[in-house]
Amino acid sequence: MATEPPVFTNCVENAVITPSPLPQATGRYLKKRESILNAAALLFNEQGTNNTMLSEVALRVGLSTNSITYYFKKKEDLIVACLGYSIETIIDIAKIAGERSTEVERTREFLKLFFKKMKSIAEGGYPEMISFRDIRGLEGPQKDHILAAYSEMFRWVRKLLLSGIVTSENRIALNVRTHMLMTQIQWIRTWIAAYDLKDYDRLAEHMSDILIGGIASSGSVWEKCALDDRLMPGKLTSGQPKSDFLNAAIELINGAGYGGASIDRISAMLNVTKGAFYHHNLSKEELISECAERTFFIVQRICSIADSESATGWEKLSCVARSLVSYHFSEHGPLLRISAWRSPGGNVNTLREDVRPLNQLVSLCVDFLVEGMKDGSIRPLHQPVASAIIIGMINGSTVLNLWVPDALKLDPVDLYVRPLFTGILVG
After folding, report:
1. How many structural domains comprise the chain?
2. How crowded is residue 85: how many other Cβ atoms within 10 Å of its Cβ?
3. Beta-bridge partners for 378
4. Residue 3: pLDDT above 50?
5. What's this model's pTM, rounded to 2 decimal places?
């Protein structure tokens, strides 16, 4: 029987974040605390939580490191506070959107309000929201505390997509689609910088149109075609390195971020000593570079094969998406999540600074969208936003097993990829 995803250890139903008591909670104190949260979230998003030091946060707000500890005793407290703020913000947005009558109205309102909040943040009206990418890198009671709060947020967002109640029949599909929506609002920050603040309302409309209406024209059907056979995982792996160390490193990076994939954790996951790690690998950086190279090879090969095929834009685009997600969950996977292709902060040398496979994938998605609109297999939509959403979906697939583990018992490609192409609210 399906469990209630997301599945977390010691997760409490309807858990909420209880903030620590604030000493001398004056207006001046709260304003400074808010500026610290904003500076910290910006740094955490830029560099990752593991690579950011309290001294850097202090420098951003004009304080000494000792002064920062008056507000947050240690970095972990600051990370939890940033995560708590982001979770509470999204819950508040979901509650307001949830007052709408239908799933379509609720989803549109949720995206509209989220973009409005992002605009207010960019204008300096609210603190930055931290990404959830490193949330599983936390340890101890703080991790259980935040993951329980994340579960509550997940349930509030899930209500937007639901007409009726959660049942054993619809639970897994709803959780997968909720993960999709959560992935997309997190992914926005990777592409929103290309647009002006005045465009945010329009972008919310385009994103709503794509997620709700899907990509297919009325004559296109979600089904495998001849190209799927050429892109089967087993036909893409020739000559590619595969080792337990690579797989463990990718799994840890996908789940806990670059900082969470420590040598100790990789070794513990494989039940080997650090000496054994160094016997097989020159360094962590070298291993991570191999992880990226393996993923880049697969992405480039899939793109190259699809681009050379004689097929409709719809067939090419849907096949590429199916192939990448299928490969990740196959015995030949996993693939490194796209958000880890650029290593955070001072580790830019670990992964390519100019990630050509990502640029190729984005460009190809746009090309296939254009082809599909020309041949009638894809409906008219905003191509750059649609491409960004597709890339975000692929990125989110690499952690689907962590947030909705029951999906892997069924067909994760059909459950997760199809809703983006046919509509997130379509049964």
Report:
1. 2
2. 21
3. 216
4. no
5. 0.86
